[in-house]
UniProtKB/TrEMBL annotation:
Record-given protein name: Putative ABC transporter ATP-binding protein
Organism: Nitrincola nitratireducens
Keywords: ATP-binding, Membrane, Nucleotide-binding, Transmembrane, Transmembrane helix
CDD domains reported for this sequence: ABC_6TM_CydC, ABCC_MRP_Like
PROSITE patterns for this protein: ABC_TM1F, ABC_TRANSPORTER_1, ABC_TRANSPORTER_2
Organismal lineage: Bacteria, Pseudomonadati, Pseudomonadota, Gammaproteobacteria, Oceanospirillales
Length: 548
């Protein structure tokens, strides 16, 4: 249960709605019980009063009639507002949970998140967070309502007869504690299996859809489909077992309610025979006992799904409790020499994989540097280091004359414009993608750089509104790359880092692109990772990484 505590604490900020929803729920339920009990008494008492003219005339129809109407109105109006309040509370809690989760996820650098697939994270954000709406709506609020209602109704019956009160309390305890506990025990493993099966199925579905063309080409659709069906079956099996448990606990609940009513009837009939209870009270007691089970009826299902809710909570906490090992200080630093980059005796490894060993590089402001080396030698790792996605194990890295570790995050990001590999484009228009380089970038600047990179034809009649598709799927590989270069060029930062900007381009386009890269911002420092030696003579330095 410890895993649920942080989520219970989150409710504090919406305590008003939470308390209002539960109070209205309690009021509605008590009105419902009162309505049934009073109506039962009223009909029975009126019928008995009708036996003789004198008793019929003496019978007070007005007060109980008004009571029935009052209970009916409170029940109807209460139910309406209870739904509004509990849903408002639930949606507010869900919204807060999503933001809370994202706030914990966002600072985790790629080094922390590399063990998680993006589809797994997506599943946690959607499915696991949704499961947590069970906690307030189906567990906490109904439990509170059930406890208070049981005490009040059993107390009322105890006032009529202590025996009746005790009897109802015992039956409500069986229905409200024992049966939910049984449901919880039976379903605890199944709920966890359901959470895991849902996650697996969603991950499989995402991979399946994303890799559809490859699966077609390699004729692997059937085998992938078979795995998909198997995972669907695992989920359906878990759901079926959950339904069987629900059926079992609902049946037991109806059974206990029936037994309680029968026992109450026996006690009440004896009291009527002993003339300690008016006959019309028989109906009141019967309806009161029957209706009181409405309070505990939602509990077995709620507790049955508690295992699932706990598993979801554990999934979320697993991410939320991680702390980034990379800390950015607050405040600001004075960038002494904008555009300068230096690596001094740097050692760097991904876990046990050594990449840079005693690596040195000095780049002056405005210099153009080509970074070359065999594939896998660690060229792209320089970007990971400069962006502080990963930390170096030894040595010093300075940007603008300031140690990388002294930079607040946003100030560090302001030092670079980066074209990474592969280029990440977002579903949206060309303008949306270029806008990432700065809110103040004008359409004219965008069109100018696109023209220089030979991309105007790509825009067609739609211009900057041209949609690029999911990940740039509506563009060719070369267009994607050049659009990424355009975005990097448009961002006015002291240092431009391009990771293989001309990879996959034909020679003429490669020349055109390099020309733009080398002339677009003449005073900007350029670090260009490349495998090609085209235009190397126009670079101030060539840095080679790894064995030559
Ligand atoms: N996130 C990571 N976790 C573990 N190892 C990694 C990670 N990223 C890269 N590597 C490994 O580090 C080494 C250097 O990778 P890097 O991407 O820096 O090489 P590169 O020189 O840019 O290669 P290429 O020219 O093929 O792009 C490679 O052996 C690679 O397998």
């Amino acid at each position: 249960m410890k895993s649920l505590l942080p989520f219970v604490r989150l409710m504090k900020s919406h305590l008003g709605w939470v308390v209002l929803g539960s109070t209205l729920g309690l009021l509605t339920l008590l009105s419902s019980i009162g309505l049934l009990a009073l109506s039962g008494w009223f009909i029975a008492a009126a019928a008995l009063a009708g036996v003789s003219l004198a008793s019929a005339q003496a019978f007070n129809y007005l007060t109980p009639g008004a009571g029935v109407r009052a209970f009916a109105m409170v029940r109807t109006v209460g139910r309406y507002f209870e739904r509004i309040a509990t849903h408002e509370a639930t949606f507010r809690l869900l919204a807060q949970l999503r933001v809370w989760f994202y706030q914990h996820l966002e600072p985790l650098n790629p080094a922390r998140l590399k063990h998680y697939r993006s589809s797994d994270l997506l599943n946690r954000i959607i499915s696991d967070i949704n499961s947590l709406d069970n906690l307030y709506l189906r567990v906490i609020s109904p439990t509170l309502i059930a406890v208070i209602t049981s005490i009040l109704v059993a107390g009322f019956l105890a006032w009529v007869s202590p025996m009746l009160g005790l009897l109802l309390l015992i039956c409500l305890c069986v229905a409200g504690f024992l049966i939910p506990w049984l449901g919880y025990r039976l379903a605890s493993g199944v709920g966890e299996a359901q959470v895991s099966a849902t996650s697996q199925l969603r991950q499989r579905a995402i991979t399946y859809v994303q890799g559809m063309s490859e699966l077609h080409v390699y004729s692997a659709l059937d085998s992938e489909h078979a795995k998909f069906v198997q995972e669907q079956k695992t989920l359906t099996d878990a759901q079926l077992r959950m339904s069987l448990i629900s059926g079992l606990t609902s049946g037991m609940m109806a059974w206990v309610a029936g037994i309680a009513t029968l026992l109450a009837l026996i006690v009440a009939v004896n009291m009527v025979q002993a003339e300690v209870l008016a006959p019309a009270w028989l109906a009141l007691i019967m309806f009161c006992v029957l209706a009181s089970f409405e309070a505990v009826a939602p509990l077995p299902v709620a507790y049955q799904f508690l295992g699932k809710t706990r598993a979801s909570a554990a999934n979320l906490l697993e991410i939320a409790e991680q702390t980034s090992d990379i800390h950015f200080p607050d405040g600001s630093v004075e960038v002494v020499h904008p555009g300068v980059v230096s690596f001094k005796r740097v050692n760097f490894a991904y876990a046990e994989r050594r990449v840079l060993d005693d690596f040195n590089m000095n780049v002056e402001a405005g210099e153009r540097v080509a970074i070359m080396g065999h594939t896998g030698s660690g060229k792209s790792s320089l970007i990971n280091i400069l962006a502080r996605f990963w930390e170096v194990q030894a040595g010093e890295v300075e940007v603008g004359g300031v140690n990388l570790r002294a930079y607040p995050e946003s100030q560090l990001r302001d030092q670079f414009s980066v074209l990474s590999q592969p280029v990440q484009l977002f579903a949206g228009s060309v303008r949306d993608n270029l806008r990432l380089s700065g809110e103040d970038v004008s359409d004219e600047d965008m069109l100018d750089v696109l023209e220089r990179l030979g991309l105007l034809d790509m825009l067609g009649s739609e211009g900057l509104q041209r949609e690029v598709g999911e990940g740039g799927s509506k563009l060719s590989g070369g267009q994607r790359k050049r659009l990424g270069i355009a975005r990097a060029l448009l961002r006015n930062a002291p240092i431009l880092i391009l990771d293989e900007p001309t990879e996959g381009l034909d020679e003429a386009t490669e020349k055109q692109v390099l020309e733009v890269v080398l002339t677009y911002r003449p005073t900007q420092t350029l670090l260009m990772i490349t495998h090609h030696d085209l235009f190397l003579d126009r670079f101030d330095q060539v840095v080679r990484i790894g064995p030559q």
